[in-house]
Amino acid sequence: MREIILDTETTGLDPAAGHRLVEIACIELLNRVPTGNVFHRYANPERDMPLEAFNVHKLSAEFLADKPLFASYADDLMDFIAGDDIVAHNAEFDMRFVNAELERAGRPRFTGRSIDTVTMARQKFPGQPASLDALCKRFGIDNTMRTVHGALLDAELLAAVYLELTGGRQHGLVLTEEASATAAFGKGRPAQALRDAPVRPPRPHAASAAELEAHAAFIAKLKSPIWSM
Q1: Catalytic: which of 57, 89, 149, 215?
Q2: Span 2-169: which CATH code?
Q3: Boundaries of every domain in the chain
Q4: How far apart are CA 82 and CA 74, in angstroms?
Q5: Distance in angstroms (rounded) separating the CA atoms of residues 164 and 186
Q6: Is the dihedral of CA 176, 180, 183, 186 positive or negative?
Q7: Any catalytic annotation for residue 149?
């Protein structure tokens, strides 16, 4: 099962008001484990950066001035997503901006399924805070490096949160040492590790001759066993 964790940073809250996407990050999950395959780009918004937005992500107009336009990598982005489900925190916000940029670039809108982890968190923990920071705290996920918002870091944290929201990693199901290493973000490809795992013959379950003899000797010592009554 392939899913895409997605996060964006923008110049504001509403693309209909002229606000633009300035950073996007996508992380590939296979069976809800990050594979290390990542798509990350900045975008020149071709406009100023409002102070309110700058205070959130610290991406200045000067920093973004020499970055590519979204249109220059729109096809690469959609090839990476490949029509698979998108997982985002407040997915409606991110997808409005992604689709606005796709339309501006003359590309079709994303019409696949998006999964909102805010909705998931509110259903699982009604009445509790559902921000990314609050969920990291709830699940014991280290977010101390998140001093400002950043699409790639936030996507990495959301990948860990999503795993917890969907039941958490079952460590006993990891079959090889290599696959175990993929439990940490960005190390190897778990699907490949499982494909390369050695095939072992099934363990025998029939009792050996020695075990049968020992069992018979034990039974012979019993006085009036219940099955003989």
Answers
A1: 149
A2: 3.30.420.10
A3: 2-169
A4: 12
A5: 18
A6: negative
A7: yes
